[in-house]
Request: fold
Amino acid sequence: MPRLFNKVVKFLVASDFFLNLGWGLLSPVFALFILQKITIGDPLKAAEVAGLSALFYWIPKSLFQIPIGILLDKKHGERDDLRFMIIGTLLASIVPIGYIFSYEPWHIYFWQVVHAIAMALAIPSWLAIFTRHVDKGKEAFEWSFESTSIGLGAGVAGGLGGIISGYLGFGMLFALMSGLNIISVILLLFIKKEVFVKRNGVGTILEKPVVTP
Reply:
């Protein structure tokens, strides 16, 4: 039976699934969290904080990920890409814990910037490794499978996020988010031997290795 994916693609997709599953838990209840815990029942202030929270995430992420991508392209081999991905995902796992101890709007803005930096580190490196390891002739299928995994993770998380926060509270929700981020990091460790390395003393990249399912 022919394999569907090589090992690198398989673990990258799995890692991304758990990362998006974790952050998807927050999406349907983030504004409610701000209303209840940060602005203490003031809906107008909550709307302002929620809007600024989006700004403090998307603007830094958009600004940081381009120079990070340029830096990674200048380095030979993929060890740096993998290292950036692991550091970024680990940093993202701290953010939900930070939310637990937040009680002022600026606390939320701070953690949004941290999350932005984390994703600016993780996303360009993830995309670079995935792109290089996609199987020839299966590009559309493997990219669509990645997109499908993100959609499934977000869909499942959207339903679970409201249930978990409603029955178990925001603290448990944030702890679960952090744990799912850690699982994402652990899965990345399984491809350490498969990433490209720098040829000793030459500075060129080794040929793409043969990877097993």
Notes: Residues 17 and 190 are 15 Å apart (CA to CA). The two ends are 11 Å apart (CA to CA).
